[in-house]
Amino acid sequence: MPDILPFAAIRDADLSTVGAKALNLARMARLGLPVPPGFCVTLGAYRRHLADHDLDALVKETIPAARLADPVEKSRLLASLRDAITTAVLPVEFRRLVEQSFEPMRNADCGFRNSAFAIPQSALRIAVRSSSTVEDLPGLSFAGLYDTFMLKGDVWTSLDAVKKCWASLWTDRAFDYREKNRIDHINAGMCVIVQQMIPAEVSGVVFTRDPVSGAANRIVVEASFGLGEAIVSGKVTPDHFVLERDKLRVVERIVNRKAIEMVMTERWGVKEWPVDEERQQQPALDDALARRVAELALKVEQAFGLPLDIEWARTNRDVFLLQARPITTLPEDRARAKRIVWTNINIGEAMPEAAPPMAHCGLRRFAADLLSHIGRLAGVTIWSDDDAIFSDIAGRVYFNVNALFAIVRAIPIVNRMKPSELLGGLSDELTPKPEDLPVIKTSRLKALLGLPGLVLWFLRSQPASGRKAVDRIRELTDALLRTDFSAWPIEDLPAQVTHGLQQVFDRTDELGGAMTGMQYFTLLARNCRNWFNDPESTIASKLLIGLGDIRSAQAGLEIWRLSDMARARPQLQELVGSDLTWAELRPKLPAVELGDEFLARWDRLMFEAGHHCRGEFDVSKPRWRDQPDFVLETVRSYLRAGTDFNPETALRQQVAVREQLSDECRKRLRNPVKRVMFNFLLKRAQLGACVRENLRDDVNRRVAIARTALLELGERLVRNKIIAERDDVFFFYEHELMPVLKGIQSFDVRNTIADRKAEYRRNLEIFPPSVIVGRFDPDAVKLDESLDPGALDPLNPPEVLSGMAVSPGVVTGPARVIMSYSTEAQVLPGEILVAPFTDPGWTPYFLPAAGIVVDTGGMLSHGSIVAREYGKPAVVNVGPATRIIKTGWQVQVDGNQGKVRILKTEPRIDTD
Question: Averaged over 147-176, what is the pLDDT?
């Protein structure tokens, strides 16, 4: 780690080396924004200063002693530590590096020759201030806790100031702040910024959101005469300007009396100077300067992706940006916040339960990268000014529906689609009103220039090309699955957590066919409604039955084929049907006829589909290959079902029905143009459904690969005594893995994991609804948030439950309610599966089921697609079905009308 890095050499990966304050300055400079030159004394220099003078031991002795001491003794201990840091001598090599780093500042003008006080460049002034590794972060500002020095720009005074900044890490107020926020003192390091000061005529701060009301459509600019120190120290009340965000029009001005200003002089350095009486009531800036400052601030905010407060200064006609930090105490825009609609429809299927932090990282990144790619093509910045695209609600990932609607409206071509159709299952009364939609950054020029490219991308992104891209990704996935992570160096394992998914993101341009497939189904359903009087899309759904190329559906059939193979030989059937676990059964298989073939087929199934589980995007969840007894018990349940249960025969019948229906539709369309359009949409909707589902399947395979890498990393961290249990690794965020490995994280690992695990367990006991309007209050959640208590009375259940029809047909049978799959729960042939959600891990339950009822989901969710593939009548988004219906009750599933009727509440009694 170098001792000094100029701003131009700092990169985002250097956060732990230079601190957030220095990194933010470097990021603004890289954007070409006006930032005064400077350099950062890195964390390495501070660590070496402690090590060279044996101060590490003093730090470790002082921390526990200060914690136990009374306030007076604590102050004495910390003062002694600060004194030891400042009196220790810096090496000659370091002084030479600082001297060399001053040259760019001496050669820069930055307004000195034009200053109102005519300061020559030879009288260079510098600011030396902290850039702690736990400072200026979202949620942790440390504002005003560390020392800042404004002084003459010579090496000796700056070296002394650097040591004083290091020492300010150990002031009483900084120590207490870390204690309050449970930040590990040992890992909190101090970097230092040395930067040229600006002889400011006017300076101030700009907030990209109103810091008082939290309103996202207001930018606040404050300003006073001279250097910003007068504002920071509270010696003046600055002028206050409020601008509309979209047009940058000044809508509010408050000019305050400014009796003094802080100025830079050659003789005195920084000095308090009286302001002339006549000038005191004059505004420090005009509307044009306010707009200029606001424009620069918006550029920084767009690059950083979060609300900021930014310090600025003007000298002559130039505006400089001096510092940028997140607004850590931003209140909500409460009126709008109450009207934001959040949902986990579709995304909740991938991760239905509360999940640890690591699981959230991949899901958010996957969805955000997908949206961002489409936005770039359309000249739209996929970022909401009012709220984030995602939110963590009770440990689950939720979409901001208001932001999604606004994004769809901003993208040409796509804006004709209904976002509720994209989500599937969002009722019209819960769609946000136009006035509640956030501001989405758009560039009309980019959109206009990008429109031909967007059209070309859409035309090129056909399901056929998507299938080729998905097949190529699958080949790469197969290779990754064979990776032996046990031989990898520990420092290479964190990168593998993101590598697999990043390979998919890098091919987003090729995967358009996987994304446009669902649009073809929407168009097909819309035309079927018009051409065939099919208001419930029953015909369109039937046209997607039994396509035969959906890999997750094939996995269920492959499990049945294992049972069919076992049934072919008595010894094999007896062995597979026994009570042995898979670990006990496997070594016995080669001794019986067809045992080797059974084992080979089993291993192929685990390679192709062993990544399935409940909530597949949750990287912490065990997979089929981790719990083979679940799959074995499913094979046994199919064996017990006998020869009457043959899903392949049923599937062939469904395919024949689909093909007959396709022919009938063509005959009904006498207009040849409509017939051509029907064939065009049908082919692409069918292929698109397969491609989309197969892409999702491969993404989930890669999540399972990331899990394997994380488990190996967890084993190593346990051996190195960093964590207590292997699965604790899932309670880190991705960006924390490398700092933890290097021992430079800014938190106590074991305490942080304990807190996160406790929160995770609490979240598992909370059941938030799939659609939330406004703020979610977990304390207000009842046993069932969508029903009144009387509706849960099993003696008086409602007769009809309503949902979304996703797979046509009507079927009656006994209910089998399964809340989570396990080795004990199995669906018998002819039963109605009633589940809270479904994903590929539930596929084995679909085969014997006569019909499907799901609490959540939409037209394009996994359960809907597989139900159509198997030809099972299905209704999803029913809400509380699993909390009303009991196993054994007779129910009717109407997959045409989206109704579930409870016919009999007494369990069926089999008399045979």
Answer: 86
